[in-house]
Design a protein that fits this description.
Blueprint: H1 6-9, H2 22-34, E1 40-44, H3 51-63, H4 77-84, E2 90-94, H5 101-110, E3 121-126, H6 133-144, E4 150-156, H7 164-167, E5 171-174, H8 180-193, H9 200-210, H10 214-224, H11 233-240, H12 245-256, H13 260-272, H14 277-297, H15 305-316, H16 320-355
The protein binds zinc ion.
Zinc ion is lined by residues 64-66, 72-73, 75-76, 78-79.
């Protein structure tokens, strides 16, 4: 059987199944219920926040033969055909690869024809900010006098790159970053249905790493589940190349106790394992920040019980001033390192050019 990626397999099929965007799904459902559908929408938001999923659900809901409460039934012939991607009335286009005037002109010529089976022709244009100036002008003409049977859904991660003339003709919806709690909730469902055993800390780690993008969370989960064993936080960190918390603790503990030799030894261990110095510095800074946060607010991030005990102990043995100073000087080191690295890369590029 063909393998389906988790994010495809668990793509929401109704507005109710969507995660963390109720402010949008509610309005869309109300519009569909009331028969007050706009002719152009702009779905704006970070990657993996559900823009394309919402666009596809919307395309089905307005064309469904038995819609219920603004939702598509997903069972009638129209819904099924859209789900299979065989209905020519719903067109998905990626503006990153189809951004020319001709691409949009083709749509402009097409919109005058009535839909073949469905009530509405729906054009979903992804990454719409990638269109060329000419293409935007062509699109504008269509948006100015759209036929009654045509709907546009434009999706973007960078609305500031879209001409205001286009923006002013669209109803805009801003998709939020999905909260860690919502991501964890969804991951739990996915794990349960896919028989994946995972610890609570591992779920938290994935949520933090995915930075509000559910699709990223599902890809991290997918990359970690190839083996038979349970997934724990360490495995995820290993997978995405983050040094273990235990190692970071060793380095920071030695720094805080003024043990330069011990700190260097622990540092060597990590670098020997092939971890990147810049990432490592970032992890150390983050860890010290977490100690400072714990010292000030008593709150901890994504740590296990044992790890929290260690943070507690480090917080007790250090002053806030010392922690602030450490964060400052390590950040400076990281910045300098970054600068040297970029310079080195630039000069290598230059040399390569000269050689060519
Ligand atoms: Zn249907």
């Amino acid at each position: 059987m063909e393998y389906t990626a988790l994010y495809r397999k668990f793509r929401p099929l109704s507005f109710n199944e969507m995660v963390g965007q109720t402010h949008i799904t509610k309005t869309l459902k109300n519009q569909i219920n009331a028969g007050r559908i706009g002719h152009a929408y702009l779905f704006n938001g970070g990657r993996g926040t559900g823009k394309t999923s919402a666009a596809k659900i919307f395309a089905r809901a307005i064309n469904c033969l038995n819609p219920k409460d603004g939702e598509p039934c997903n069972e009638c012939e129209i819904c099924k055909a859209i789900l299979q991607g065989s209905l020519t009335d719903v067109v998905e286009m990626d503006a990153a690869s189809n951004n020319s005037v001709e691409d949009i002109r083709a749509i402009r010529d097409e919109v005058n024809f009535l839909p073949t089976l469905a009530k509405y022709r729906v054009y979903i244009i992804d990454e719409v900010h990638m269109l060329s100036t000419g293409a935007f002008n062509a699109l504008l003409k269509t948006l100015e006098e759209p036929p009654e049977h045509v709907k546009f859904i434009l999706a973007t991660t960078e609305p500031q790159k879209i001409p205001t003339t286009i923006l002013s003709r669209c109803q805009r919806f801003d998709f939020k970053r999905i909260s860690n709690d919502d991501i964890i909730k969804r991951l739990k469902i996915v794990c349960k249905e896919s028989n994946i055993k995972i610890t609570e800390e591992a779920l938290k780690t994935i949520a933090v790493l995915s930075e509000g993008a559910l699709r990223d969370a599902l890809s991290i989960l997918e990359r970690c589940m190839q083996e038979d064993s349970d997934i724990d936080a360490e495995k995820i960190k290993e997978m995405v190349g983050i040094p273990k918390t235990e190692t970071i603790y060793k380095i920071v503990n030695n720094i805080i106790n003024y043990n330069a030799e011990g700190a260097l030894e622990a540092l060597d261990e990590v670098l020997y394992a092939g971890k990147d110095l810049q990432n490592l510095l970032w992890e150390i800074i983050k860890y010290i920040k977490d100690i400072l946060i714990f010292k000030t607010t008593n709150e901890t991030g994504i740590y296990s019980k044992e790890e929290i005990e260690k943070i507690e102990e480090l917080a007790k043995n250090t002053s806030k001033e010392r922690l602030v100073n450490l964060i400052y000087s390590l950040s400076e080191t990281r910045k300098r390192y970054e600068m040297v690295n970029t310079k080195r890369n630039n000069s290598t590029n230059r040399n390569n050019k000269i050689m060519c």
